[in-house]
Specification:
There is one protein chain. The chain is an alpha+beta fold. It folds into two domains: 76 residues, Ubiquitin-like (UB roll) (Roll); 78 residues, Orthogonal Bundle (DNA polymerase, domain 1), CATH 1.10.150.120. Helix content is 37%, strand content 15%. It is built from six helices and five strands. The chain has a five-stranded mixed beta sheet with strand order 2-1-5-3-4, sandwiched between helices. Strand 3 and strand 4 form a beta hairpin. The chain is globular. The N and C termini lie far apart (51 Å).
Length: 164
């Protein structure tokens, strides 16, 4: 066991953990953040996607020791006082989910994409979501959710405080 300090969703956590334990297990089992899903455990499905230092990463492929001192954001951090993040809202509006298991990973990848590129092309969306797999819904509705979120987030950024 090793003492590690992780900043998860803006909150510092110092925990004693096996540094070789997968980050997805630390998030779920040690910190109780079950929004990050454990799917394939081999980096293929993307259900465990979180942001580590603002970059989308598969938490099953990162051992806890690699995350020491890093800033980690999970899907639980996106909603603001019960109001869904625009990406979460767009995914709901476009029916971009069916069983929902893969959704947190797609949402985290989409948030990372749209924070870097607010008006992505279809090819850029495909590239950003390449590491995420859905077995239920199909990708057309997911792409529509990303496009809707991009439009809504662009509209929000253009609104001035005087518009409120």
């Amino acid at each position: 066991m090793t003492e590690l300090t992780l900043t998860v969703n803006g909150e510092s956590h110092t925990i004693d953990v096996d540094p070789s334990k997968p980050l997805v297990d630390v998030l779920r089992d040690d910190l109780g953040l079950t929004g990050t899903k454990k799917g394939c455990s081999t980096g293929v499905c993307g259900a465990c996607t979180v942001r580590i230092d603002d970059e989308p990463r598969k938490a099953c492929m990162h051992i806890a020791g690699m995350a020491d001192g890093k800033s980690i954001q999970t899907v639980e951090d996106l909603a603001d006082d019960g109001d869904l993040h625009p990406v979460q809202e767009a995914f709901l509006e476009e029916f971009s989910l069916q069983c929902g298991f893969c959704t947190p990973g797609f949402v985290m990848s989409t948030v990372a994409l749209l924070e870097e590129n607010s008006d992505p092309t279809d090819e850029e969306i495909e590239t950003a979501l390449h590491g995420n797999t859905c077995r239920c819904t199909g990708y057309d509705m997911i792409f529509e959710g990303v496009k809707r979120a991009a439009g809504e987030m662009s509209d929000d950024s253009r609104a001035s405080p005087a518009d409120d």
